């Protein structure tokens, strides 16, 4: 068994509300064990079979679609993968310590095409900078996230694929607790 974390995209937005105990039950119904949630923003921790995380993502997505009546994109990482994501030096330490800056990580189902990656990197400005590594997008926002001209929907449109975004602080808390 491996400990995984599923990052769910838009689980509690757009008029949809799923209580965390109900969400845990949906994961348990799939035969996953030791299911927990972390913050009510679609972070589900569980133990599951070793193997293909993409197949596990699809299994969860199908079950959530059938149970909730709407699609929930799901991005699964093992705790060891997540530790690597949290520790990856996407930007210089000095850049990350600038007052008002924040680092956000976008989770993808697979790495973007070279064309999509080039398109995203061309979106960099003095405020927003991007780095791609594997199935993650590292987004350095040098202002408050809500004040950036870039957004999650624009990120998805630029890459041509779905993503879900978490603050690096959330990722580091998950790693500290579960990895």
What does this structure look like?
The protein has 7 helices and 8 strands, in the order E-H-E-E-H-E-H-H-E-H-E-E-H-E-H. The protein has 179 residues and is an alpha+beta fold. It has 2 domains: 2-82, SP0830-like domains (Alpha-Beta Plaits, 2-Layer Sandwich); 87-178. A 4-stranded antiparallel sheet has the order 2-3-1-4. Strands 6-7-5-8 form a 4-stranded antiparallel sheet. A hairpin with a 5-residue loop joins strand 2 and strand 3. The radius of gyration is 16 Å and the shape is globular.
Overall average pLDDT:
94
Spans of at least 5 consecutive residues with low confidence: none
Structural class: alpha+beta
Give the fraction of residues assigned to helices. 25-40%
Overall number of structural domains:
2
Q: Determine Rg (CA atoms, Å).
A: 16 Å
**Beta-strand percentage range:** 25-35%
Characterize the largest beta sheet: strand count, sense, and whether it forms a barrel. Answer: 4 strands, antiparallel
Termini, distance in Å? 14 Å
Count of DSSP strands = 8
Strand order in space, largest sheet: 2-3-1-4
Helix count equals: 7
Succession of helices and strands: EHEEHEHHEHEEHEH
Q: Which outline best applies? A: globular
